[in-house]
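Ticket opened by: R.M.
Priority: normal
Category: complex prediction / small molecule

The reporter submitted a protein together with adenosine monophosphate and asked that the result be attached to this ticket for the collaborator who will pick it up next week. Submitted input follows.
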Amino acid sequence: MNIILFGPPGAGKGTQAKYLEKKLNNFQLSTGDMLRDEIKKDTEIGKKIISYMNEGKFVDDDIVNSLMKKVIFDSNKKGKLIFDGYPRTLEQAKNLNLWINDSNQKIDFIFFLNVSKEIIIQRIEKRKIIEKRSDDDLDTILRRYDTYIETTKPVLDYYSGQTNFKEIDGGLKINEITAKINEILNV
Ligand code: AMP
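Result attached by the on-call engineer:
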């Protein structure tokens, strides 16, 4: 089963993706983790993107798309993809659609975890203490949220009419969100 988890930073995409990875024996594809990994390994891509990420801006579609394309066409992962933080722009959504079709796959569900700005600020401030991410300070959080609102509206419009698009209240507790997802997946 291929699933997209969609929503603002701090909506709980990563937590649910990790849960689904175990439950379904799938693969969590977190673009944020992939990009942080490039920075940690000090690759050419890592050097290019570090300032974007620290400022809470989106990394170029070209870079993110090329990382993602490799995984979608990886035969070991076919039909077992959990997208966490991708697509975030309309161009990414269109590319994903193309590659999913070209690799004879489909997206089974798109879960939209919808959360208010106030809840996100509270959650990310907590996460900063636990994970110590350099892009989790208040200014950056607000910038990341604004970037999300500006660029993801077209992605929402792109998916929201589809029958496999499911909106879930991302302000609920982790286990309540998980229960709603399980109910929809029938697992
Ligand atoms: P995340 O871990 O999903 O919160 O992502 C952290 C940061 O990585 C974002 O603020 C962006 O700078 C970058 N990033 C993650 N996913 C994407 C994406 N699909 N497109 C562009 N930038 C991304």
